[in-house]
Each structure stands twice: as C-alpha cells, then as structure tokens.
Specification:
alpha+beta, 60s Ribosomal Protein L30, Chain: A, 6-stranded mixed sheet, 3 helices, YjgF/YER057c/UK114
Length: 122
C-alpha cells in the first residue's frame, strides 16, 4: 500500500514522531490538531476555531475540504465546554455531518483544552 505524508506550514508542525496527516487508498488520516497558542487564554470557542482552521489547511493541502470528512474524534478536558465546541465545530459542515465521538480526558498535549482528529475520503 502506497502512502503519502501530507504537510502544510499553515498548521502546527508535529510535536512528536507522527505526521500532520497520511493519505492512503483515497483516505486522509489527520492527526489530532490543537491550538496551543490559545489554550491559556481560556476562550474555548477561539481555541476550537483555530483547531478547525488547522484541519482545513491540512485538508486543502491534500486536495480535500470539510465535505470529505467522514469521521471525527474530539478530545476535551472539560465536557462542560461541549456546547461551545459543538457550535464552532458544526459551523464547518453542511447538513451531512461526519460520524463523531467526543471524549473527556484528564490532560491533552501542551495543556490545551480541545484536540480534534479527522478521517476524510477523497
């Protein structure tokens, strides 16, 4: 199986031994995206907005957009932020929403409040 590493300087570089995204068999697997620069400001909407912009930049680099997303995973430090995250996240999709789960976790990289990964099909 041939794979292609997808990278853009319009999203944060990987902070470990992983790629921003990997394309294989017409599918794009986007690693969890964060907004470390906004995490300490306490604005969950701004943080989520930046995460979604990062994902959009990676999708565009791979020749895709949000309409190609079929699956998303949201990791959140505080589930009481669910409504705000959901509103921002949902604004990036038309009526055909991807499958998704949202999981509350104890801690995220760089002490961010939200991390989102997606799978897209081209």
């Amino acid at each position: 199986m041939a794979t292609e590493i997808v990278y853009t300087d319009q999203a944060p570089a990987a902070i470990g031994p992983y790629s921003q995204a990997v394309k294989a068999n017409g599918m794009l697997f986007v690693s969890g995206q964060i907004a470390a620069e906004l995490a300490t400001q306490g604005d969950i909407r701004a943080e989520t907005q930046q995460v979604m912009k990062n994902i959009g930049a990676i999708l565009r680099t791979a020749g895709m957009d949000y309409a190609n997303v079929v699956k998303a995973t949201i990791f959140v430090k505080d589930l009481t932020n669910f409504v705000a995250i959901n509103e921002v996240y949902g604004s990036y999709f038309a009526t055909n929403y991807p499958a998704r789960e949202t999981v509350e976790v104890a801690r995220l990289p760089r002490d961010v409040n939200v991390e989102i990964s997606v799978i897209a099909v081209g």
